[in-house]
Design a protein that fits this description.
Blueprint lengths: L1 H27 L4 H7 L2 E12 L2 E9 L3 E5 L4 E6 L2 E10 L4 E4 L2 E8 L3 E8 L8 E9 L1
Antiparallel strand pairs: 1-2, 1-3, 1-9, 3-4, 4-5, 5-6, 6-7, 7-8, 8-9
């Protein structure tokens, strides 16, 4: 009887130890870029608008933002909030080459870590006599 009890106790300890090891491995696994993006909402810090004509910067403006938050969801939507009230929902996708599509805009994710996100969108009509608009969105957590 004692032998059976010891065998069951040893088996229980071994199985609990192996479960903890699996959890530890998950905890140390680095987060994917998508997991970082979706982990928590992002607070907008600034928007920089650069206007180029034939490759030359002709105007630049930095706008400080407050009260604007974006929340990237795992269903492929991003919700924009102004002072905690939802104002817009768009579809988004993040590719492995750091390109991002958000609604009709195509851009690139320049910085993405646990505390900082920077996305650049470029609007180019494709004709040399038309200006090119580049907007850089900076977010923090």
């Amino acid at each position: 009887m004692k032998t059976q009890f010891l065998a069951l106790a040893t088996l229980a300890i071994i199985s609990l130890t192996s479960c903890n090891k699996d959890k530890d491995e998950d905890a140390t696994r680095p987060k994917t870029r998508l997991e970082i993006l979706m982990e928590k909402p992002w607070n907008a810090r600034s928007i920089t608008s650069n206007l180029y004509l034939q490759g030359q910067l002709i105007n630049s403006r930095v706008e400080a933002t407050s009260g604007i938050t974006v929340d990237f969801r795992n269903d492929g939507t991003v919700i924009s909030y102004q002072n905690n009230s939802p104002v817009d929902t768009l579809a988004y996708s993040l590719s492995s080459d750091n390109s991002m599509v958000m609604g009709d805009l195509q851009g690139s994710v320049d910085i993405l870590n646990d505390s900082e996100l920077q996305i650049t969108f470029t609007i180019d009509e494709g004709t040399p006599d038309m200006p090119v608009l580049e907007e850089v969105y900076d977010f923090t957590r």
